[in-house]
């Protein structure tokens, strides 16, 4: 992967953006569903909580995926460059 | 890196610096000084035209976005038609294009698991990268035509060559349509690759309880994808304008143009492309 070094500093930013955008989507779905149905703000609360949970779930999924990629990359790096295995 | 300049280039550079300083001194002494609140009054306003149909946010457009998008598309198509004939021994421009396309191809090849979809994804990624990079650089580093618009959305005056071009990626609608297009295409590829049933099953993984979260997470992808590019490009254009106003007689604006226009613009275009490829590969795997 050529872009792995470049994306090193974007991981934290990507995590934050993922969480916030999920919360936003939850908020908007909840707001419009609420206005369309009962109009008592219950669905809004439910969907904001759902959006937050979804944001954390997807964010951590993303972090785990990146960590896996880095493990693979580091192993290859150790093998080729240093060969000492810095544990 | 050590620069080696010929005698002629040194003399030309000295003449350029002299003219630059002279123009700066003339500007400082003679030019009318616009008030700061006067200069930044219309900085974030957009030209708005109401359509005869639709309602709410759906019945207004920004015609300048349309004009700039079509102009950029025509320029790219004309340039592509010019480079249509590839030679076996490449000249300078051809090898630049080849190395760029090869870089994008390597990114695509490294992350798409299914071999049948490498070529189509490569076409999509290249199209996105060329369009977004071109419009980002145009909106961040090249002085050109832009509009001064009051808060009602009417054009007050046309600004010629004292501000940057209006970039179509500084409008959220362009970015959102590109991101939604990537979302639709990733799911179309997923249906084609895995079959309809397996695609439907992927929504209920790892547990049927997770279905709403998967839906919200999937809908959040185009939002984060588009807002990131929009924030960087629109904010970069505004920052260049404001900081250039504050240091307008010095060398600083050139550096700022280079940083916000070329560097941030190209990095964001690359990030947009890589994210599009990552979304498609996540839908495929």
From TrEMBL, chain A:
Return the Pfam families for the record.
ATPase_gene1 (PF09527)
> Where are the membrane-spanning stretches?
12-32, 44-64
The family database entries (InterPro entries) matched by this protein are listed as:
ATPase_put (IPR032820)
Entry superkingdom: Bacteria
Q: Keywords, A to Z? A: Membrane, Transmembrane, Transmembrane helix
How is this protein named in the record? AtpZ/AtpI family protein
